[in-house]
Design a protein that fits this description.
The structure is a single chain. It is built from 18 helices and 18 strands. By secondary structure, the chain is α/β, with parallel strands linked by helices. 32% of the residues lie in helices and 19% in strands. Helix 11 runs antiparallel to helix 12.
């Protein structure tokens, strides 16, 4: 029955949010599955479609979601031709996790844990110990990395079990806190060019009877943020990374499996008032809010003491047609950050009193406090397919 025109529209029901496949098909499940197949103790295979290999290489392309590869067969002919190999030959993607953002996803990849356990639940999140927002990508303000994320990485577990373990990435990332808590274990090899990374990754794969190698490329994401995924600059990066994947695939040593994945997809957001809601200029959304965290399409909202229910009501009323708006408890119970209802105690207060995840093509910017982020064309973070679905393309030798 149609809703009478004089009644306010109902907010999006939380059970309509397409949840990440934690435990069976998310980024957090990838490395545990691979190293379990290599005989590393203490981990279990979680993605049932994958079969073991002695040598495993994960190539993570920042910002290259499943939908972007599908939509660009001309720019990425090699990757597009391999879509059918994804997820063990099922031709299906896996999910990034929520929020679909780099710091959270890289922590999920490296630790084999969902955000509710590893504790990096967004681009920025409140530190309950200090009350300050912490940028978990740039690690500002400084926080002890191993207090913030105390679990061992899968790379460390593999290295301890005798698997030859290596990361091949930009030298810039070698000593960052995010690398320490998410991607450390074995040896780090810094190389500037993409071609050098592919060649060295293949060498490192061949260096052990059992090998686990991780390599990374970031410029697809960078061009998408700055110019959008409909830009010539972004398409040029896609063409380049397509050649990189083929270069690595053609050098795989025997008994190897290469998995090409991503940390999130991306969507372009128009520069108009309907598509970009400026928190810093909206008195209604600011009322009762002490801190605004997260990013434009996945917001953590921290209320002043006693105002949590009022903030939830207002955000749901104002944004509920375009965002899934949940309380912290509702988001945890629904399984946004991990298995439904499960969240480490130390992580609980890092999650917003209110969590808002975009369903429509819209963002909540903060023009004064986040001028650089607010000026981006390409955005990500939420649970829509274009952001959440990532490839798990497979090439075997």
């Amino acid at each position: 029955m149609a809703q009478p025109y004089w009644q306010d529209p109902e907010p999006l029901a939380l059970d309509t949010a397409p949840l990440p496949e934690y435990g069976s098909g998310s980024l957090a499940d990838l490395l545990p599955t691979l190293v379990a197949g290599q005989g590393v103790p203490g981990v279990s295979a979680a993605i049932p479609e994958l079969t073991p290999a002695d040598r495993n290489c994960v190539f993570l392309i920042d910002g290259l979601g499943w939908e972007q590869i599908k939509a660009h067969p001309d720019e990425a002919p090699y990757l597009h031709s391999l879509l059918g190999t994804s997820r063990g030959g099922t031709g299906r993607p896996i999910t990034a996790g929520f929020p679909a953002t780099t710091a959270t996803s890289l922590a999920s990849v490296g630790t084999g844990l969902p955000p509710a356990a590893h504790g990096l639940p967004g681009y920025t999140a409140r530190n309950p110990e200090t009350g300050q927002l912490m940028n978990q990508l740039r690690w500002r303000p400084w926080t002890d990395p191993h207090v913030w994320q105390p679990y061992p990485t899968v790379f460390q577990l593999a290295d301890a079990a005798g698997v030859h373990t290596a990361q091949v990435s930009s030298p810039t990332f070698e000593h960052t806190p995010l690398t320490k808590v998410a991607l450390s274990g074995g040896t780090f090899h810094g190389r500037l060019s993409g071609e050098d990374r592919m060649d060295l990754a293949a060498e490192q794969l061949a260096a052990g009877d059992r090998s686990l190698v991780y390599t990374y490329y970031s410029d697809v994401d960078g061009k998408g943020h700055r110019f959008g995924v409909d830009s010539d600059a972004w398409r040029g990066q896609l063409m380049y990374v397509d050649r990189l994947v083929q270069r690595l695939a053609e050098q795989l040593p025997p008994r190897s499996a290469l998995y090409v994945t991503a940390d999130h997809g991306m969507i372009d957001i128009p520069f108009d008032e309907e598509s970009r809601i400026d928190f810093d200029e909206d008195w209604e959304l600011r009322a009762g809010v002490a801190l605004l965290g997260g990013e434009g399409r996945a917001r953590h909202v921290y209320a002043v003491p006693g105002a949590q229910s009022d903030v939830l009501a207002v955000w749901r009323e104002v944004l509920g047609e375009q965002f899934w708006v949940a309380s912290r408890e509702e988001a945890i119970a629904a399984g946004w950050f991990g298995q439904p209802g499960v969240c480490d105690e130390r992580v609980h207060g890092r999650i917003g009193d209110v969590v808002a995840a975009a369903q429509a093509d819209v963002v909540i910017t903060a023009s004064q406090n986040e001028p650089n982020e607010s000026a981006m064309v390409g955005m990500h973070g939420s649970m829509t397919p274009v952001e959440q679905l990532v490839p798990l393309i497979e090439v075997r030798s």
